[in-house]
Design goal:
Blueprint (H helix, E strand, L loop, with lengths): L2 H4 L2 H11 L3 E3 L2 E3 L13 H7 L10 E7 L4 E7 L2 E2 L5 E3 L3 H12 L4 H10 L5 H23 L6 E6 L10 E6 L2
Parallel strand pairs: 3-7
Antiparallel strand pairs: 1-2, 3-4, 4-5, 4-6, 7-8
Helix pairs in contact: 4-5, 4-6
Amino acid sequence: MPFDEYVTKDRLEEGLVAAQETVLYCGRSLSLDLNEITICPEGAGLFLQGLPRKINPQLARVAVLVIGHRNTSWLVTDKGYPSVMESVTNNLGFRWLVQEVQKRTGHKDEIALAEMIFTGKNLRPELQQEIKKCLPLYWQQIRLFLTEQNPVDYVWCAVVAQQCSWNKKSWAIYQGK
C-alpha cells in the first residue's frame, strides 16, 4: 500500500477477515480461513528482498522508486527507517500515458488502449504516432517529479513499463548523487 494509505492497514485487515466467509469464486461460495495477514508499505518487498548486498540500508538513505499502473511512488528510508515525510505517491503511473494518448486520439476504451500500448499489439499507425509524441511528455513528468525529491544515497527502481519494452519489468540500481 502507498505510505499515505498504509495508516489504514488495520481497517483493511479487519475487512479481509470479515469477508473471508463470503468469497465468491467462479460462481461458487468459498469459506476461507485466513491464518495470517501481512500488509506492507508499497516497495517494502523490493527494499527487503531486492537490495544488493553492497548496500547497507542501516547506514544509508535509500529510496525505492515504483512506477506502476496507477501511480508513481518515491519511498524513502533513512538508516533503515521509513521517512514518511519524504515519501510521495502521485498519479504519474502508466495510466497517465494511457489517458494522454486517449485524450489525443478519442479512443473510447481505456482498458483496451492500455493493453494495446503495454503489449504493442494491434496499434494502428495513428496510435503509434500519438504514443511517440506522448512518451517524451510522460518521461518529462517523471524527471520533473524526481528533481523535486531530496537527495538519497541509492535509488532502487521497479518499472512496470519501459519506453520500448512494454511487456518487461525492469529492475535497476543507481547510485544517487
